[in-house]
Amino acid sequence: MFFCGLNKTTLLDYPGHLASTIFLGGCNFRCPYCQNKDLLLHPADYAAFTKEDIFDHLTKRRGILHGVCITGGEPTLNPELPTFIKKIKDMEYLVKLDTNGTHPDMVKKLYEEGLIDYVAMDIKADPEGYAASAGLGMQDGNELTAQKEALLSKVRETVRFLMEDAKRPDFDFEFRTTVVKELHNEATFRGIADWIAGAPHYFLQSYEESEGVLMPGFSAYSEEELKAFASLIKPKIPSVEIRGV
């Protein structure tokens, strides 16, 4: 596991809780608007912390922090993730997992073993636009097409699991989409609303350009435009909210 970042205290990453956020390197998507390009492309070079550093921090902050967010990159790529999280849970922290949904078996395992309390899953786009938004459309060939379909099948499986099977009373989840003007439009959100209709929490996150973006040059919708998308979605996902504006 590559521990590429540690936000020691945050009120933003875990809804309703004071938390620390751990950034793990490596990802199987190449979303062109990703804000953490170094974690995707060179995770070993940016492994700034050891596992001991992480647990030393969490030990010192016991009784002050309530939760730990595990993000990336894509954390579920790491086979040792359950063992790592179990040590965090043994310290009596709540655990939130950020994921792109491409490893449903890992998400199910963590859920069934009581190792996660909250999941935030990215919905990159409607199914038709998913490959482009996830950065899987930058090559041609049958092999990539098969890879796209396999990954999207896994994403759909994770959505189904969260929506239909994850019924623990002490567990919650959200879906979220980073909204990029060049990749998302009204049809995108009609498709997403149909797909995840009835979701308990759905967030539209405003895109923000930064030095860490994988492929700079994208732009954000205005707050008014995001509100218009939210109004479009509300009949099927009443809980839709806007972040980052």
Strand residue content: 15-25%
Termini Cα gap: 33 Å
DSSP summary, beta strand count: 8
CATH topology: TIM Barrel
Structural class call reads: alpha/beta
Question: Are there runs of 5+ residues with pLDDT below 50, and where?
Answer: none
The CATH architecture category equals: Alpha-Beta Barrel
Average pLDDT, all residues:
94
Q: Per the principal axes of the C-alpha atoms, what is the gross shape? A: globular
Strands of the widest sheet, in order across it, are 1-2-3-4-5-6-7-8
Query: How large, in whole angstroms, is the Cα Rg?
Result: 18 Å
Helix count equals 8
* The CATH C-level class name: Alpha Beta
Order of helices and strands: EEHHEHEHEHHEHEHE
Could you explain the architecture of this structure?
The chain is an alpha/beta fold and 245 residues long. The protein has a single domain, classed as Alpha-Beta Barrel (TIM Barrel). It contains eight helices and eight strands. The protein has helices at 37-41, 51-60, 81-90, 104-112, 130-133, 142-165, 186-195, 223-233; strands spanning 3-10, 19-24, 67-71, 94-99, 118-122, 172-179, 202-206, 241-243. Strands 1-2-3-4-5-6-7-8 form an eight-stranded mixed β-sheet, with helices on one face. α8 (223-233) links the parallel β7 and β8. The protein is globular, with a radius of gyration of 18 Å. The model has no long low-confidence stretch (mean pLDDT 94).
